[in-house]
Specification:
The complex is a heterodimer of chains A (about 400) and B (about 375).
Chain A: H1 8-25, H2 28-34, H3 45-51, H4 65-79, H5 92-100, H6 103-109, E1 114-117, E2 133-137, E3 140-151, E4 158-164, E5 174-180, E6 186-187, E7 202-213, H7 230-237, H8 239-267, H9 283-310, H10 316-341, H11 352-359, H12 369-381
Parallel strand pairs in A: 1-4
Antiparallel strand pairs in A: 2-3, 3-7, 4-5, 6-7
Chain B: H1 8-35, H2 40-47, H3 69-82, H4 84-103, H5 106-112, E1 125-127, E2 143-147, E3 150-161, E4 168-174, E5 179-185, E6 191-193, E7 207-217, H6 231-263, E8 265-266, E9 269-270, H7 275-303, H8 309-333, H9 344-357
Parallel strand pairs in B: 1-4
Antiparallel strand pairs in B: 2-3, 3-7, 4-5, 6-7, 8-9
Helix pairs in contact in B: 1-3, 3-4, 3-6, 3-7, 4-6, 6-7, 6-8, 6-9, 7-8, 8-9
The chains are: A alpha+beta (about 400), B alpha+beta (about 375).
């Protein structure tokens, strides 16, 4: 049955997420100004765990888990992009290891926090242009290259990197390798200086004649297939959960912006009347309500996408739809909120300007909005990658 | 729980009406628009599907199915995909009848609902819009002054659908404290029904203006009687319904543009291979999906008896803008061809703008 209401259990879950988020927010500005990695654990955590009410097990009437995951992600990022009561272990590289690694490789490295290093200065949207190379020399691969925008790059104990074993083969020559921190030739020269999510761990990696064992090729398949490798497509498949979750993360920040703006509007005496016509509603309110509609649409796209996954149904198009829509929406929403509030919105005394900068990455990573639209268009037109670039 | 799953029944309704849209609506849509009229046998044919009578209680002659605004939103999308004028015309009686089912007194239900359970199409219309600039549905200029036990209505209503043949009108007016809806028979003294209006879009749908000059209505003809009714929620239902039609129209535009773009060659390749066109089509799809979920949420709130004011307002605000965007860009994809009245996108462009500014008309 089509339904958009939350059960009491759902609400309890989300209330807890929100309570955690509010604690995290207290540290947001401090760590961002200092551009330091977020603390591993906040001092408030122990007391929070001791005093917080236990949430009952979810029942058959409660909102299904994938949908709750998206809502909880939204609620967590509503607090802050980076700060957590306790930083979770693991990184994007762990998912890649599960997707591409042999059982032995998963056993060997699965317990480490692994970053995922794909993007380079010269390639982002088009991963076939990866220049980072791995050359076989006896029983070792020799890795050379540079990776940027590596999430969890500094904390990580190891990195899954994409490197080509044959540049002339294009995509087909690209393989995943695992490089452990401390391997000679693997340098982490600095943390990226970013427009937003400044406290977040985003690193640059240098590989200079970095030697790794032959067995560090994930999946151990050294051949170059005639077509795009299955491992490549396997990683692409994980986008169908990561894309909606990425959308949800951005939407959490957009929601924070809307909530703050609503509070300020109401404190300034503006009434939000959801029915008032254009003739009576002030421009600030009219603009704000439009942003709320945009937000709702984006959240619903995202929830519908993960709902499909929960039903075991394909959600390829929907992943691109919700990620593409949210990417544009969170830009418009947060920039619009700053616009509505005027100079107050541009002041570092409030977190609004930070949320605007933080959520800007949403339309860029995990597949830019342009890439999402390319995927959607190919789907609508039944075009291959060769048909539509 | 949050769920986007239509029931099996809803899927059947959707599939049935999609077929109806393709077979019975699309072939006649352009002629209806050019001639500003809808053949009676179309209305009688769709009447046989029971869209109005199904959700009327059995005791009044209806199908006795539970009221389902969500199902109505689903079917309105398919009808909107077929043609907006025909869709609205087909659902005008439901708009009135559902208002009586949801908000009418026992007496009002007994008197009026059997009219919608007969063999032939029976029109009765919501009268909400008004002709002045920057119309605000919640601040109508049509007034209801108390007089004795009843009221006296004065004002002008426009865009009253099928008003040329409606037996009754449900007139929304301001009563000094809030809003009320009044059941006014077409023969009422002081009521003047105009000639068919000339509109930008929905040209196939006959609409009229009503001039109310001190039309007397009794308490018994006030929707909900002494208690009145929640007119804001009634209007929310109308908004959700119009949104559903806009979703269908948007979907239709995209479906028309895709094969054309693949076929039309310029500079050595189909225009679908140019990013400007391809991205535009992707955006049309994104917005159609977005509009649908907002519409479903509004309809779902109406169905569950929740205050649907906010979701309906958000849905309408979004859909009105985006449906216009989609239809506008539909014309652009077709280039010069999109500007010619042979081409459906020309008609959908006008319909999109019209749907986005209307209130009332139909309901979920």
């Amino acid at each position: 049955m089509i339904d958009f209401t939350l059960t009491e259990n759902d609400k309890a879950r989300l209330a807890r997420t929100r309570a955690e988020a509010l604690i995290c927010r207290k540290y947001a500005r401090e760590y961002e100004e200092r551009e330091e990695l977020p603390p591993d654990e906040l001092p408030e955590r122990k007391e929070f765990l001791a005093s917080a009410e236990a949430v009952p097990e979810s029942g058959p009437d409660d909102t299904p888990k994938p949908v709750m995951m998206a809502l909880q992600a939204q609620g967590t990022y509503w607090g802050d992009y980076s700060i957590r009561l306790k930083q979770s272990g693991g990184g994007l590289g762990n998912a890649a290891l599960s997707a591409a690694g042999t059982k032995e490789q998963q056993e060997k490295w699965g317990h480490l926090t692994l970053s995922m290093a794909i993007t380079e200065p010269g390639c982002g949207s088009d991963p076939s242009m990866v220049q980072c190379s791995a050359e076989l020399d006896g029983d070792e691969w020799v890795v050379n290259g540079e990776k940027i925008f590596v999430t969890t790059g500094i904390r990580a104990e190891g990195a899954v990197i994409w490197a080509t074993i044959d540049k002339s083969a294009g995509r087909a020559g690209i393989k995943s390798f695992l490089v452990e921190r401390g391997t000679p030739g693997f340098e982490v020269p600095y943390k990226e200086k970013k427009l937003g999510i400044r406290a977040d761990d985003t690193a640059v990696y240098f590989f200079k004649d970095c030697r790794i064992p032959r067995g560090n090729l994930l999946g151990l398949d050294e051949t170059i297939p005639k077509k795009s490798s299955g491992g490549f497509r396997g990683v692409m498949k994980t986008f169908n959960m990561t894309r909606p979750l990425t959308a949800a993360m951005g939407l959490g920040l957009a929601e924070a912006a809307l909530d703050f703006t609503r509070e300020q509007l109401e404190a300034a005496g503006f009434e939000l009347d959801y029915g008032a016509g254009l003739g009576t509603v002030p421009a600030a309110v009219e603009k704000f309500i439009r942003l709320e509609a945009l937000f709702e649409a984006s959240v619903l796209n995202t929830l519908q996408c993960v709902w499909l996954a929960g039903q075991g149904k394909p959600n390829n198009m929907e992943s691109s739809v919700c990620k593409g829509h949210a990417g544009s929406a969170v830009r418009a929403i947060t920039q619009g909120c700053v616009e509505i509030l005027g100079p107050m919105g541009a002041s570092r005394e409030h977190l609004l300007e930070k949320w605007m900068r933080d959520c800007r990455i949403t339309d860029i990573y995990e597949g830019t909005g342009e890439i999402q639209r390319l995927i959607i268009a190919r789907g609508l037109l039944e075009y291959t990658r060769a048909d539509l670039k | 729980m949050i769920s986007f799953g239509p029931t099996e029944e809803q899927e059947i309704v959707r599939d049935t009406l999609k077929e109806f849209a393709d077979e019975a609506m699309r072939p006649i849509a352009r002629d209806c628009d050019e001639e500003s009229s809808i053949p009676q046998d179309f209305l009688d044919t769709i009447w046989e599907l029971g869209l109005t009578s199904t959700q009327i209680p059995e005791e009044h002659g209806g199908g006795g199915e539970p009221r389902s605004p969500v199902t109505n939103a689903i079917l309105l999308e398919e009808l909107g995909y077929g043609d907006a004028s025909l869709a609205v015309a087909a659902m005008v009686p439901s708009g009135f009848a559902n208002a009586i089912v949801d908000h009418g007194t026992e007496d009002q239900q007994k008197r009026l609902l059997p009219l919608f359970c007969k063999e032939k199409f029976h029109a009765a219309s919501l009268a909400v819009c008004e002709p002045g600039a920057v119309f605000d549905a919640l601040k109508p200029r049509t007034l209801a002054e108390p007089k004795g036990d009843g009221f006296v209505l004065s004002g002008v209503k426009s865009f009253v659908p099928l008003g040329d043949r409606a037996s009754h009108f449900l007139v929304v007016a301001a009563n000094g404290e809030g809003l009320d809806a009044f059941i006014v028979p077409r023969e009422a003294g002081g009521l003047r029904i105009s000639e068919p209006e000339k509109n930008l879009g929905l040209r196939g749908l006959t609409t009229v203006s009503l001039e109310l000059e001190r039309v007397e209505v009794s308490q018994a003809d006030r929707l909900g009687g002494q208690a009145g009714c929640d007119v804001r929620n009634l209007l929310a239902g109308s908004r959700a319904a119009l949104c559903a039609v806009m979703v269908g129209l948007s979907r239709g535009v995209l479906a028309e543009c895709v094969p054309y773009a693949k076929d039309r060659v310029a500079f050595g390749e189909p225009i679908a291979k140019k990013q400007s066109i391809a991205f535009r089509l992707a955006e049309m799809h994104i917005e159609t999906e977005s509009m649908r979920w907002l519409t479903w949420k509004a309809a779902s709130f109406v169905e569950q008896g929740l205050d649907a004011t906010r979701p309906a307002h958000l849905a309408r605000s979004y859909a009105a803008e985006k449906c216009m965007w989609v239809a506008d860009n539909g014309v652009q994809v077709f280039g010069g061809h999109g500007y010619i009245r042979d081409n459906p996108v020309e008609m959908w462009f006008r319909n999109a703008r019209t749907l986005g500014v209307l209130e009332g008309m139909i309901g979920v």
